[in-house]
Amino acid sequence: MSEVLVQIGPLPVYTFGLTLALGFLLAALVAIREGRRRGIPAERMGDFLAVGIVVGLVGARAGFVLLNRQYYRTFPWEILLLQDGGLTFYGAVPALLLLAWVWQRERGAFYRLLDALAPGVALGSAVALVGSDLFGRRTGLPWSVTSPAGVQVHPLQVYWLVALYLLFVFLWRRRRRIRFDGEQFLFWLVGDGLIRFGAGFLREGERFWRLGYDQWGALLAVGLGLLWLRGRLQGDDLPWEGDVRYATRGKPQLLEVFWWGLGLLMLVGGFYLRLGAL
Asked: Are the beta carbons of 172 and 191 closer than 8 angstroms?
C-alpha cells in the first residue's frame, strides 16, 4: 500500500491513496444521484459526504489502532501514518452510522440516507481494493500473483473487488424495487459481511475457533443486519406510500450487461497491470 505511483515534487502519490480517492469520488457521485431521487438535496448530501470522509477515516483508523494497541503503545507516532494502510471496516461503519443518525434524525430521513449511500459504498470499496495489498494464501493457480515475499499467492483483492462490484450491480439493479426505507442498506450490510467472511478463509492471521477475528466481526455484522432487517419488516412505523411506488425494471439489456462487464474488466485489469502481471 506504500507503493509510490508518481512523485510530484516533494509530494508522493501513493497507489492506495489514489484508488481510495477515486473510490470515494465514485461513491459520492452515486450517493448524490440516489439521494436526490430519494428526496435528499444534493447540497445536503454533499455536506454529509464532506464530513463523512473525515469521520469515516477517523473511525477506521481508531478501530485499527485499538485492534493493534500493543504495537501503537510502542510506536505511538505511527498512529497518523496512513500510507501503509491501517484502516478497518469495523471502525468506519459505526462512526458513519452515528453521523448519519445525527445528520438526518430531525428530518426523518435516516434510512433514506443509508439507502442512498449503500450502492456507492460497494462500488467505492471495489475501486479502492485495486490499490491495496491484501494477498491471500499460497497457490499455484494461473491467476496467482507474487507477494512482496516473492511467493505465489491468491489475488485476494481480485476476489474481493469482484464480489463487491457484483454487490453494487445487485443493489443498483434493485434500487427502484425496495419495499421500505433502509432495505438497500441492510442488504449491503449483510452482503458485505458475507463477502468478508468468505475472504477470511484465504487470509493469513490469528485464528479463534478456526475463524479469523475479521470473520467473527463479519458474522456479527451479518447477524445484526438480519435482525435489523427482520425488525424493519415487522415494524409498525412503515407508512404506505401508494402514490410513490418505484417502477420495477425488466431483465438487463445487452448493452447494460456490456457496460457492467466492461467496468468489472477494468477493475481486474487495473489490478494486474499495477502489479506488472499483464
From this structure: no
* pTM (two decimals): 0.85
What is the DSSP annotation of 232-254? HHT-S-----GGGPPPP--SPPH
Nearest partner of 244 among 169, 184, 180, 182, judged by Cα = 180
What pLDDT shows up at residue 57?
85
- The beta strands (E) that lie in the chain are given as 4-8, 11-14, 145-146, 152-153, 207-208, 211-212
Q: How far is CA 250 from CA 133, 157, 176, 188, 263, in A?
A: 38, 32, 11, 22, 21
For residues 78 and 72, the answer to whether their CB atoms sit within 8 Å is yes
- Of 168, 162, 151, nearest in space to 27 by CA: 168
d(CA 22, CA 167): 18
pLDDT in tens, 80-107: 766 555 777 778 888 999 999 988 776 6
Residue 51, pLDDT above cutoff 70: yes
> And the C-alpha cell for 115?
439507502
